[in-house]
Amino acid sequence: MKIEKELKLLSRENDNVCILRKFIKKSLYESKIQLLSTQTYLIKDTYFDTQDFSLLNSNCSLRIRKPENRIVFKFQPNVTKNKELKRQEISAFINENDEIGSKISEFLDNHKLNFQVFSLFELEIERSKYIVSVNDIQFEICLDYCIVNQPPKKIFSFIEIEIEYEVDYVLLSKELSKLIDSVCLSGSFYISNENKYSICIKNLKRM
Question: Quick one: which of 67, 143, 156, 161 has the most CB atoms within 10 Å?
């Protein structure tokens, strides 16, 4: 079972994502975090839950992510005093021609997760991934422009930054602290412990 470590920053407003990409690169340079590579690509997540939203109410999530073709179940996170999220996840790969409903049921059965779920919505993500380094320790910073298109009219978007790492030193480094301060002091972002699924559901209920 994988343990995911990350820090999330959520946009206060739906700012221009192109401007934010430039701002992130500038902030990396000023924080003396080495930028190793940048990649922008598209992701499509399909989220599932029970009729009474058992996963949402337990702060868990279940999705299929493409083009990875991977089922991912994320358990309730542990939020540390540094607002870091530590979350266990389990996953499995599927084939393009697999029947989604049966593969989801098989996946849940294999992991003794007693849920009857159905598809809720699709989340499209335009991800800019920055592979960076602090004192030769690599980690990832992802700027995600997220769009929910729920027919007939429920369309909204939000922007999120995910900082993912394996070594705790990264979170405690002065370089990352400076980057986070710079991003938050800009007024555009704040540290959040909400996952993408709960953000989407909250906005869909408002519409």
Answer: 161
Q: What are the angstrom distances between the C-alpha of 21 and each of 16, 38, 180?
A: 9, 10, 15
Side chain identity at residue 37, one-letter code: S
- For 68, phi then psi, to 5°, come to -65, -25
User: Is residue 45 a contact partner of residue 122, using CB atoms and an 8 Å limit?
Assistant: yes
pTM of model > 0.85? yes
Range of the domain at 184: 2-206
Neighbouring C-beta atoms of residue 177, cutoff 10 Å = 13
Please report the DSSP string for 112-179 in residue order: T-----EEEEEEEEEEEEEEEEETTEEEEEEEEEEEEEETTTEEEEEEEEEEE-SSHHHHH-HHHHHH
The CATH number given to whatever domain includes residue 8 is: 2.40.320.10
Helix (H, G, I), strand (E, B) or coil at 24: helix
Q: Tens of pLDDT along 52-96? A: 999 999 999 999 999 999 999 999 999 887 789 999 999 999 998
